[in-house]
Recover the amino acids of this structure.
């Protein structure tokens, strides 16, 4: 039976959407990508997901069954890898992977936003925000001193779930980051920045509008 590709509402620079795109790429799945402008979200997305954040994955209905909407980046990653997980990401210590991603999303992201937009949070100097964010980076550094990836010798959900956020932190001031004593984290980040699937995850698309020809992501089926 023909299954139309799911729709992924995405925003290239959003770390949550990067996580979702990486999950889809590691699963070898192809979706129809709908690039969103956050200041002008498409009505079609808001109808299926009124909370208005990206990423959103819409699994298209098949003859009489309703569509299924997955509205959280972590759930999109898990859904994708449950379809197909040739590199076995889901089987690398999923409990620890989820604890690490919780720490990323609930604590590190808080300091990352303040470090990145320090002018909007004048209560503390930017350096203080960076230092608070570095508590998590130091923890990751310790893990990466033990193995190539966060949870050992194999890539896990934690790597693809956290990498986009570390990248964003580093982009605030790359010179500062590469001068900090985190050689293993620097090596890990460089590995990911050069990874073919990450590069594929960062391909640019023009914003989607209703009536556009479908744009497939990835462009070539893996
Ligand atoms: N918990 C959500 C968070 C997603 C999120 O916050 N995405 C941001 C962009 S990075 C967003 O869409 N914000 C809405 C806006 O800026 O209008 C997830 O994991 O998918």
């Amino acid at each position: 039976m023909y299954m139309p590709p799911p729709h992924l509402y995405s925003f290239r620079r959003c770390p949550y959407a990067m996580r979702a795109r990486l999950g889809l790429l590691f699963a070898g799945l192809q979706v129809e990508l709908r690039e969103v402008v956050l200041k002008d979200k498409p009505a079609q997305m808001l109808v299926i997901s009124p909370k208005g954040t990206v990423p959103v994955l819409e699994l298209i209905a098949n003859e009489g069954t309703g569509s299924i909407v997955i509205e959280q980046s972590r759930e999109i990653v898990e859904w994708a890898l449950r379809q197909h997980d040739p590199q076995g990401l889901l089987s690398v210590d999923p409990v620890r992977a989820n604890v690490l991603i919780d720490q990323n999303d609930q604590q590190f992201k808080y300091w990352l936003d303040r470090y990145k937009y320090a002018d909007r949070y004048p209560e503390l100097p930017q350096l203080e925000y960076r230092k608070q964010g570095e508590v998590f980076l130091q923890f990751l550094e310790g893990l990466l001193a033990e193995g190539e990836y966060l949870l050992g010798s194999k890539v896990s959900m934690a790597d693809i779930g956290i990498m986009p956020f570390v990248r964003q932190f580093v982009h605030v001031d790359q010179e500062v980051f590469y001068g900090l004593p985190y050689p293993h984290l620097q090596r890990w980040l460089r590995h990911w920045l050069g990874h073919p699937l990450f590069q594929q995850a960062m391909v640019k698309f023009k914003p989607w509008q209703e009536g556009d020809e479908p744009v497939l992501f990835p462009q070539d089926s893996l």
